[in-house]
Design a protein that fits this description.
With 133 residues, the chain is α+β, with helices and mostly antiparallel strands. The chain has one domain: Immunoglobulin-like (Sandwich), CATH 2.60.40. Helix content is 16%, strand content 49%. Strands 4, 5, 7, 8 and 9 form a five-stranded antiparallel sheet that branches. Strands 1-2-3-6 form a four-stranded antiparallel sheet, with no helix packed on it. It is globular, with a radius of gyration of 21 Å.
């Protein structure tokens, strides 16, 4: 009796630890994000499709003494663009770099844009949205 329950428990543990078939076919290639150019701003990032969505890493660096803050933003949307979520990185001060990372659940579309802002919190320049997919 003890051996049977041990065999059943071992089989159950093996079944629970097995990788699902959908995870095996999921691509885990990391892609680079290309942000629209903006004066005084350096922006970069990557994205990877994972089982729970899109893992996004975004970085922004302020490259000008005359700009108070710079930002880089990724926007993930559903297929109809009615739902969206975003991840942004905002750097304050000359040669300051900020990076952010998050898994976004909406996976149909991914777009990016960048901006600069003044010391009153107003966006002074914003690029057009660039479609990644």
């Amino acid at each position: 009796m003890r051996r049977i329950s041990l065999a059943v428990a071992s089989a159950a543990m093996l079944a629970l630890s097995a990788v699902p078939a959908s995870a095996a076919t999921m691509g885990s290639t990391t892609h680079k994000l290309s942000f629209p150019a903006e004066t005084g701003l350096k922006a970069w990032g990557t994205y990877t499709r994972v089982a729970k969505g899109i893992k996004v890493n975004v970085c922004a660096e302020d490259m000008s003494r005359s700009i108070y803050a710079v930002g880089a933003v990724t926007v993930a949307s559903n297929s109809t663009y009615k739902k969206h979520t975003n991840l942004g990185a905002v750097a304050f001060g000359y040669h300051q770099t900020i990076c952010r990372s998050m898994t976004l659940r909406l996976t149909s579309h991914l777009q990016v844009y960048s901006f600069t802002a003044n010391n009153k919190g107003m966006i002074t320049h914003q690029t057009k949205m660039k479609k990644i997919f």
